[in-house]
Amino acid sequence: MNLVIRFTATLLIFVGFASSGLCQNVDSEDAEALTYRLYTQQKWDSLLMTGEKAIAKGYDYFYMRARVGTAAFELQKYSRAITHLTKANEFNDGDEFVLRLLYFSYFYGGRTDEARLFLGTLPAEVAINIHPSSNKPIFYIETGPAFSDHIHQFENKRQGGNGLYSETYLNKNSFYFLAGSLIPIRDRISINTAFSTLNFNKIQRIDNIYGDSIQGDYQVRQFEGYLSPSFLIGKRLKFSPSFRLSNVSYNNPALSWDTSYNDIAFGGEVSYLAPYWTLSAGFWSLEVEKMNYKQAAASLLLRPFGNLNFYTFTTLSFKSAGVSKNVIIHQMLGGRMHNKLWGEAFYTSGDFTGTGELNLQVFYNAYDKIKERYGVRFIYVVSDNLKFTLRGQVYSREGTELFYDQAVKSDYYPFGYQTLSITGGVSWNLQ
Length: 431
Hints:
Layout: H1 2-28, H2 31-40, H3 44-56, H4 62-74, H5 78-91, H6 96-108, H7 112-119, H8 124-130, E1 138-148, H9 150-157, E2 165-186, E3 189-208, E4 214-233, E5 237-251, E6 258-273, E7 277-288, E8 291-302, E9 310-321, E10 324-338, E11 341-349, E12 355-357, E13 362-364, E14 369-383, E15 386-404, E16 410-429
Antiparallel strand pairs: 1-2, 1-16, 2-3, 2-15, 3-4, 4-5, 5-6, 6-7, 7-8, 8-9, 9-10, 10-11, 11-14, 12-13, 14-15, 15-16
């Protein structure tokens, strides 16, 4: 046993001396030759580690920063790549290889506003060579159906007993279409504009003890317009006012005329853009069926690794309508699943009826309460200019039944149901 212990101790001492000697050799080797060799051999992990140690010891010049920045870029450590490539650009302003990597480090790292701002600082001919589509609009389309078990849940959960009168409005299915564009105006100004239509198939159900039951199918049509300019202020701040107008129309089978009204929402948010995170705060005023809502929200987009291989988006919203107040929490986790495929999973808790989402890009102005939502989204990036999306969402909603009992006392009785929404989309940057 003692022999084994002495042998193990001797081996550890030998390995320690060998490691010490190896580190000494690496430290004393010419940093330029070593990093150049690692660069030509494309040993990015070793190059990033060795190069950053060399920089810390004072070997700080253009080629060193360019190599280390390239290594970080190839390893998809985009925030670290930006640090080194920015320094390389300071040493040798105008090197197009460095400028190209620096732009795409912003772009692939999810910092698209900073990418556009950086590109705007370059000569026009250089910017066009780096990304020919950077100053052209991005168009996007999203469409798909939604299916509901509202009728089934009503039949199972409606009020029992001998009632005099029952009335409810039930959702069958719906269809959604959105088309929009993100238009760059100048380096610091862009406009997001969109138009959408929603068609809801519904049933009005009336049961009367003194007559036959009445059931009428009808449609609710909704046309929406959205406008949100964005202004970059300095290097870190972005201000984005927003406005949304929704025209709702339907032909109620119980009435002899059509009904039409407008829902309006406006406000805006301010965002602080940091390398690993973006913090946003906003306030909006919303009018839904002539009822006024106020909404304030704070959001945090976090990229802990400096790229989009893993990211989170958290929103805390506060809604008030008269004396009614409630809090809404939204959490999303996303990241790269395989090669060009990204995935996101999200969950929302709280009554977010009468609120907006993503600076009013989505407007929840339906009558029934939305109490909970969960879903997933898949993003397939074909190229820098083209991507496809597929989203599935399940909404937990609350319907109501107006019910008169034998004593002619009435009340609204809630019951739960779910809606499944499936939408596919595409966005492309004109070339």
